[in-house]
Amino acid sequence: MELTTIWFTAVAVLFTGYFILEGFDFGVGTLLPVLGRDDRERRALINTIGPVWDGNEVWIITAGGAMFAAFPHWYASLFSGFYLLLFAILLGLIVRGVAFEYRGKGDTAEWRRRWDRCIVFGSVVPAFLWGVVVANIVRGVPLDAGFDYTGSVWGLLNGYALLGGLTTLLLFTTHGAYFLHLKTSGELSERARTLGLKLGAATALPALAFLIWTQAAHGNGLTLALIALAVLALLTGLALDYTGRGGWAFAATAVTIGLASTALFCALWPNVLPSTSDVANSLTRENAAATDKTLGIMTWAAVVFLPVVLLYQGWSYWVFRKRVSTESIPA
After folding, report:
1. Quick check: 181 and 249 in contact, CB under 8 A?
2. How many CA atoms lie within 13 A of 217 on its CB side?
3. How far apart (Å, rounded) are the C-alpha atoms in residues 325 and 180?
4. Residue 2 falls in which region: left (phi positive, over 0), alpha (psi -120 to 50) or beta
5. What is the C-alpha to C-alpha distance for residues 46 and 10, in angstroms, rounded to an integer?
6. Distances (CA, A) of 275 to 142, 259, 263, 278
7. What is the DSSP string of 286-311?
8. In Å, how far are 50, 59, 77, 121, 259 from 88, measured between CA atoms?
9. Residue range 255-262: mean pLDDT, rounded
10. 305 has pLDDT over 90
11. Per-residue pLDDT tens for 33-56?
12. Is the pLDDT of residue 331 over 70?
């Protein structure tokens, strides 16, 4: 297998892992004022992701670093052309991270409500805009002969991309509801299960529309199979949540996100950023790649360090695997 193929696959895997892991973080943040009826319940909700949310963000940092080193032209065109969208995502992540740290620094209810609103903002905005970004990558953007983006930010807010943003927002929120059903106990867990049913049903239609649009415009035989399996996994998760099997429902939405993300990257292949103005200006895994020597060094580094990172993150999830209850939260 060529090194360019290996690193395209690596970038796809890193983004997919990020969407699966950070997806439920976004979902929990989005649902904070919906499921948390008082401060103790909201603190319990935050505690479910408290030990892991910052570790989940490492996946996108690694994905960006891998893109920068393996496909510098892709990185340059994407981060310059999508600058405002990516800046808004970064702003949301910063605001959310600060809110997690500062929410408990004040004693008044108003102080905590302000930071709760920041957590919601920092969850909803990235969850929506990541769908917009990935949809535009698959759809393609206008590029000139120097691979520079020649469109405007308004061109990125097209119908396909906005539907993609709505899909990721709803899917991540559903993922978060199933996670809370799994990670909380008592009445809070039951409310998360009930809300997950409603969210899962609401997610099905836009997700199906987005995936069908993707298949019709950019798909192939492999993407069709992946999309069909993703839809099946989403419906399976809904059925599992209905029967009260929160862990399996959460696993089903993780599979849904993984299959959908894989389908999008398969639809993109062998391009990394198609040009809608002239197909000759498209960035591909070949013309966007770094030198073979650079890719070779990166491959050996990944072989050595990636297992260590995965083992550490897996261990952290194992240590903090227990459910969170409101009874364990001091009044």
Report:
1. yes
2. 17
3. 11
4. beta
5. 31
6. 5, 25, 20, 6
7. TTT---HHHHHHHHHHHHHHHHHHHH
8. 23, 18, 17, 11, 26
9. 96
10. no
11. 999 888 899 999 999 998 898 889
12. no
Place of tokens 């009874």: 327
Please name the residues in contact with 132: beta carbons below 8 A apart, sequence gap of 6 or more.
85, 156, 157, 161, 162, 164, 165
State the DSSP code for 36: -
Whether CATH 3.40.50.970 fits 3-328: no
Q: How many CB atoms lie within 10 A of CB 108?
A: 8
Residue 58 neighbours by CB under 8 Å, 6+ apart: 309, 313
The first and second tokens of residue 224, run together, are 């069709």
Query: What ranges in 103-185 are assigned the alpha helix state H?
Result: 109-139, 159-183
The residue type at 209: A
Question: Both tokens of residue 117?
Answer: 């609103």
**Which residues, in sequence order, are CB contacts of 131 under 8 Å at separation 6+?**
161, 164, 165, 166, 167, 168, 169
pLDDT of residue 324: 85
At 201, list the tokens: 């049903």
d(CA 231, CA 247) in angstroms, rounded, equals 19
Digit-coded pLDDT (tens) for 84-99: 999 999 999 999 999 9
Q: Which amino acid is at 216?
A: A
What pLDDT, on a 0 to 100 scale, did the predictor assign at position 240? 93
Domain boundaries, the chain: 3-328
List Cβ neighbours of 233 (8 Å cut-off, separation of 6 or more). 252, 253, 255, 256, 259
Q: What would the two tokens of residue 182 be?
A: 């799994």
Query: Backbone phi, then psi, for 321, in 5-degree steps?
Result: -85, -15
Rounded distance between C-alpha atoms, residue 214 and residue 140, angstroms: 12
